[in-house]
Design brief:
- The complex is a heterodimer.
- By secondary structure, chain A is of the alpha/beta class.
- Chain A has three domains: 171 residues, Dimethylsulfoxide Reductase, domain 2 (3-Layer(aba) Sandwich), CATH 3.40.228.10; 190 residues, Rossmann fold (3-Layer(aba) Sandwich), CATH 3.40.50.740; 115 residues, Beta Barrel (Barwin-like endoglucanases).
- Chain A is built from 21 helices and 23 strands.
- In chain A, helix 3 packs parallel to helix 9 and helix 6 packs across helix 7.
- Chain A is globular and about 65 Å long.
- The N and C termini of chain A lie far apart (50 Å).
- In chain B, the strands form four sheets. A five-stranded mixed sheet of chain B has the order 2-1-5-3-4, sandwiched between helices. Chain B has a three-stranded antiparallel sheet with strand order 10-11-12. Chain B has a two-stranded antiparallel sheet with strand order 6-9.
- Chain B starts with 8 loop residues before the first strand and ends with a helix.
- Chain B has two domains: 127 residues, Ubiquitin-like (UB roll) (Roll), CATH 3.10.20.740; 157 residues, Alpha-Beta Plaits (2-Layer Sandwich), CATH 3.30.70.
- Chain B is built from eight helices and twelve strands.
- The chains are: A alpha/beta, B alpha+beta.
- The interface between A and B is large, with 63 and 60 residues.
Chain lengths: 540, 322
């Protein structure tokens, strides 16, 4: 986050924090066991503000719900920042010793008065003021977020705006205070740890640094490409330009998970050659020239994953994979053998030991220690190191030896897909408790909670449409149109609609979503689509 | 904790032997530190003690009544007796009353061992009364007293109203653990509570609706804390009914859940290459033994094998799903 990308806190810290800003996260449904820790914090007296366009089941536990207009997070954060400064509640000592760029930040947020913030976000000024004062005055405070912050065209700026608040108040680098992004998949953090990023080698080491490349080349015995790679949104654009004509997809279902899905499916189908390695015959695999059946990582093979508190944990094979399916590592090793690389067939532990040689933050994490200690949190530089509970303690050390953390002012830019007379409703997407992403895994079990694919709107909007619950409606965006049943839900304000992402075969919400993406992270704007809703009969 | 040193120690005696524990420890903690584990039913390390079962009671010198060791904090100089006549007599009676009224056939080995140690003989209260199906309708204050020919029981039909878990309240000893796990100690869903009074008290959803109509979110945390098998995974229930549940042939492998980024540890209980139950280690900092519906039940996608090698276990589980 400031340097290496990872949440700064351990889960246990939220149990004793004083103020929680749950910002763009429905953790009660999407990260239920993290929410257990959060609930302990509330039971211990923490005050929680929930920032979310929907009054989710998480927001219902908050002391105050800030039902912001979709995509106005930076406006809210800047207003909070300005109010903290105006009230003199910023942490002058911390700012002075551990940060730089405060003056530029203060100047940038100056126009964001409570009145302007209230007008842009739709949140009453008094509630913004209370949140700002409580957050800044707290002994310990955390900001927790998930995709409500990152699935926007300006995802990186959204995160920066939250980091600025932590720097402004000194709520980072101390036990109980910090910045807590909760990851959506069991190894999003581990993928980053391992360098599955366009410009990083394992351990968040920059691929453009000659010394870093030299270190990897000496162990790998080959040359490491000098240039940044492409994230998925850039890959899709490169496919449009026919710069990418071959694709090797491992454990991803872009034919359904990417925004503007119909367009992406066309690009995938138009590739010269695609290999898909997956545990299922997904929609993407169906478009592939070659399919490698893979073992399920968490139950059918050995390895490690890293969770949202930077804890590396062991996964172990509990059942034999079915049929011809093989461990991902074995498939890749077999492929390398055919390519004449001579890697042999290393075990997961042998690969991990190579990671430990090359990535200092993982160096102390032997399989034996991971087993004995129930995982270890990076950085863990040697075998005597207990792992790191929270990051950035160095910002408080005396004397200050590290580089100060920068304030990065952010400008509020509204969603790319504007509301208009033709598209008057803001559609946002999200997760439900019993389901997961495109549903490929979670639809396999018989959940009594499973909801039908549907669009949810505020009861007032439903009444205005003249439809009843369960009626089929047509939902149309600037990119596509789908027919789905409609339901009314009190968690939604007038003008806001919601669809879960879990049932693309029944309701392909990504035919509607916008593929405008954040230039820094490559994340598409799944959370903000302009639509109109009409009774389905009117269309036919 | 990052802040503060260890709390000061407290010294007491357990059955005459001195033991020192941190202030704020319970007598149970002290007994365990002294190498003298105590029987428990309603206590679990990840739940707040509710003092419901009374099998952990000990004698404290100078105290009129026996003290529940699971919740009573230690005091300097305390003299605790865990195996006095009074303690043994009390524990024996508690076990016998419970076992005479509920089916304790699936309790853990430790409980079996303690009941044997205390010479429990639940049958001395007479033959057990047969099942009744009106326990959920009984109103407080209207309890009918039996004729004395049989020991009153909680026996009744198994409740099967969904595909993930079953409730067999013939086995329920009202330890409250499920209520605690559903409520403040973990899930904060509050789908179940105790209804009724006295012997008619029972665990119930609101207005006794089926689980699928209740607030239940099917996390299964109530099952994982149940000490008697009253709450059970549907998979285990069906395999037991088919006489195919073979715990001694099962392996337990620890791994990490494949859903979301919290990183919950899962213990996969596997029989014949099929996952038949999922639990989580109670002493792990991420979960404290608690899971959500996806982690607990969402594993089936790795064993939806179509026509590939259908085993007898698959057949039982498929029948269960209807």
């Amino acid at each position: 986050m400031l340097g290496a990308g990872g949440g700064t806190c351990s889960y246990e810290e939220i149990e004793t924090t004083d103020v929680i800003l749950l910002w763009g996260s429905n953790a009660r449904e999407a990260h239920p066991i993290f929410f257990h820790h959060l609930m302990k914090g509330l039971r211990n007296g923490a005050v929680m503000y929930a920032v979310d366009p929907r009054r989710t089941t998480s927001a219902m536990w908050a002391d105050a719900w800030l039902g912001i207009d979709v995509g106005s997070d930076i406006a809210l954060a800047n207003t909070v920042g300005r109010e903290i400064i105006a009230a003199g509640l910023h942490h002058r000592e911390f700012i002075e010793r551990a940060t730089f760029g405060f003056e530029i930040y203060a100047e940038a947020v100056e126009p964001w008065t409570l009145e302007r913030g209230a007008e842009v976000t739709g949140v009453p000024a008094e509630v913004i003021r209370r949140m700002a004062h409580d957050y800044a005055s707290a002994e310990r405070a955390q900001i927790c977020w998930t995709l409500g912050i990152t699935e926007h065209h300006n995802a990186t700026d959204n995160v920066r705006a939250l980091i600025d608040l932590a720097l402004l108040t000194g709520h980072v680098g101390r036990y109980g205070s910090g910045l807590v992004p909760i990851r959506g998949q069991n190894n999003v953090q581990g993928g980053g740890d391992m360098g599955a990023l366009p410009d990083k080698l394992p351990g968040f080491q920059d691929v453009t640094e000659p010394a870093v490349r030299a270190k990897f080349e000496s162990v790998w015995g080959g040359s490491v490409p000098v240039h940044r790679g492409k994230h998925i949104s850039l890959m899709i654009e490169a496919m449009e330009r026919k710069e990418i004509t071959g694709l090797y997809v491992i454990g991803e279902n872009p034919a359904q998970s990417e925004a503007r899905a119909e367009h992406v499916r066309g690009l995938l189908a138009g590739l010269d050659f695609m290999v898909c390695q997956d545990i299922f015959m997904t929609k993407t695999a169906q478009l592939a020239d070659v399919v490698f059946p893979a073992a399920a990582g968490w139950a059918e093979s050995d390895g490690t994953v890293t969770n949202s508190e930077r804890r590396v944990q062991l996964m172990r094979r509990a059942v034999e994979p079915p049929g011809e399916s093989k461990d991902d590592l074995e498939i890749i090793s077999l492929l390398a053998e055919r390519m004449g690389c001579g890697w042999g067939f290393p075990s997961a532990e042998e690969v991990w030991d190579e990671v430990r040689r090359l990535s200092s933050i993982h160096a102390g994490m032997s399989y034996r220690r991971l087993e004995e200690l129930g995982g270890l949190q990076w950085p863990c530089p040697d075998e005597d190191h207990p792992g790191t509970r929270f990051l950035h303690a160095r910002l408080w050390e005396e004397p200050m030896t590290c580089t100060p953390a920068p304030f990065v002012p952010t400008d509020w830019v509204p969603p790319i897909d504007p509301l208009s007379g033709d598209y008057p409703i803001r559609l946002t997407t999200g997760r439900r408790l019993d389901s997961y992403n495109t549903g490929v895994q979670s639809r396999g079990y018989r959940s009594p909670l499973r909801a039908k694919a549907a669009i949810e709107v505020a009861p007032q909007d439903g009444a205005a449409l003249g439809v009843s619950e369960g009626d089929l409606v047509s939902v149309t965006s600037r990119r596509g149109s789908i027919d789905v049943p409609i339901f009314f839900h009190r968690s939604l304000r007038p003008g806001l609609a919601f669809m879960a992402v879990h049932a693309p075969d029944e309701a392909d919400v990504n035919l509607l979503t916008n593929d405008a993406w954040d230039p820094k992270s490559g994340t598409a704007e799944f959370k903000a689509t302009a639509v109109r809703i009409e009774p389905a009969a009117a269309m036919s | 904790m990052a802040d503060g040193a260890d709390p000061p120690g407290v010294t007491l005696t357990v059955d005459g032997a001195a033991v020192a524990v941190p202030a704020g420890s319970t007598i149970l903690d002290a007994c365990r530190a002294a190498g003298k584990d105590q029987p428990t039913l309603c206590y679990l390390d990840n739940l707040t003690p509710v003092n419901a079962c009374r099998v952990c009671v000990v004698e404290v010198d100078g105290n009129r009544t026996l003290a529940p060791s699971c919740s009573r904090p230690v005091e300097e100089g305390m003299a605790v007796g865990t195996d006095t006549d009074r303690v043994r007599h009390s524990r024996k009676m508690v076990y016998e009353f419970l076992a005479s009224s509920a089916d304790m056939g699936l309790v853990d080995e430790q409980t079996v061992r303690w009941m044997s140690y205390y010479g429990c003989d639940p049958a001395r209260y007479g033959p057990q009364a047969g099942p009744v199906e009106d326990r959920d309708e009984r109103t407080a204050g209207h309890h009918r007293i039996g004729d004395g020919h049989a020991a009153e029981t909680v026996h009744q039909s198994v409740k099967v109203d969904n595909e993930l878990y079953v409730r067999d309240y013939s086995r329920c000893i009202l330890c409250y653990k499920c209520v605690e796990a559903c409520g403040e100690d973990a899930q904060n869903t509050f789908a179940i509570a105790v209804a009724g009074r006295g012997f008619d008290a029972r665990i119930s959803t609101e207005f006794d609706v089926g689980l699928t109509d209740s607030a239940c979110v099917f996390c299964g945390n109530c099952i994982s804390v149940c000490p008697t098998g009253a709450l059970m995974f549907r998979s285990e229930h069906e395999l037991r009914a088919a006489d195919m549940w073979e715990e001694d042939r099962q392996t337990v492998t620890r791994t990490v859940c494949s859903y979301c980024g919290v990183g919950c540890n899962l213990d996969l209980h596997v029989q014949d290459n099929r996952i038949v139950k999922v639990t989580s280690p109670i002493d792990h900092s991420v979960t404290s033994g608690h899971l959500c519906i996806k982690g607990r039940f969402g594993y089936e996608y790795v064993q939806e094998l179509g026509d590939l090698a259908v085993t007898p276990i698959d057949e039982v589980l498929r029948r269960a799903r209807g």
